[in-house]
Write a structure and sequence with these properties.
The protein is α+β, with helices and mostly antiparallel strands. It is built from 14 helices and twelve strands. 39% of the residues lie in helices and 20% in strands. The longest helix has 21 residues. The radius of gyration is 26 Å and the shape is globular.
Length: 397
Amino acid sequence: MEPVIFHIDVNSAFLSWTAIEQLKNGSTVDLRTIPSIIGGDRESRHGIVLAKSTSAKTFGIKTGEPVAHALRKCESLVIARPDHAMYRQYSKQLMTLLRTFTPDIEQLSIDECFLDFTPIAYQYKSPIAGATLISKTVKEQLGFTVNIGIAPNKLLAKMASDFEKPNRVHTLFDNEIEEKMFPLPIEDLFMVGKSSSKKLHELNINTVEDLAKADINMLTRYFKSMGRMMHEYANGIDDSPVERPLPKNKGIGNSTTLPKDATDIMTLKKVVKKLSFMVGIRLREEEKYATVIAVQLKNNNFMNFVHKKKLVNPVSSDDDIYENACVLLKEMWNGDPIRLVGLRVSDFTDKSYEQVSLFERVGKSNERDKVQRAMDKINKKYGNNTIKSAALFEEDD
């Protein structure tokens, strides 16, 4: 299916979070309902506007302008000081809540993130239904609202979330670019700053459509590589993935939703083999050995099962991960049709050790590690899949 990416942006984050905190502490006035801003000091009139309420916006108050200018526009303006420690706590709560929907989240700033909806799309009637549920859950559990942009890539998702606010869900798919994005002023295009927009206006490029249809050679002549990027963005082109950061020493995992339900052990083992390969590469890139392994299964009724165990010997090779995962798989699978398979390793150590009995050949895991790391070096130098396990080849390969 076509990728579906969400961009989730808190509406007037600093002001919303300050308002919620004040209400918790007994305030009878919600800053979000009156002309108000976050930032600066009324008496000294120093500082700038960090966030503004919707009603403050009607007075022409803009984010980033001096507080003194804002007070001239609205004498009754209420000003609250920022509390960045508190904002970080609200941001953490938001990201924690969003990860209950999917772990595939890339935080862009304290109040916005990208969410890869593609792997979980099958759980919802539509992307809009999924976004609406997320928006509703955030408001009910955390007390503030978000805008959500839905698109096939990160760029378009961010552009969509900036459409009408607050508390809205907007789509911007490829067939909507001409209608929804082309008429926008060039300043509204992501990554077009003040100096770039000024030069574009001098070239009679005033809208996103003008930029999308401009001569690429002319743009690169004036803006170098930035010109090509702006041209691609104006045409809705962006292939950057949602990059989920790896928490240090917490865990490495991958999961996959199957094109059709798996009903036999060999199919499940084949999926586990591929996941072991993916997890193993990331584990060795971190130069870690795992001492805990877990397998996740989700059946066709969306019931989730996780089975894990502590390993006697730390592992990093694909084969060691696979063999242990297969043991867990046999122990946990009850024959239900399986829709999703996941694999995760955790509890890392920097060194490998091996406990063996008198009848086992010493160094089996270490030999596997050496072979695996040699394969990694070849693949890194000559490209992914230059060399890999025969079990990972499809029948058509």
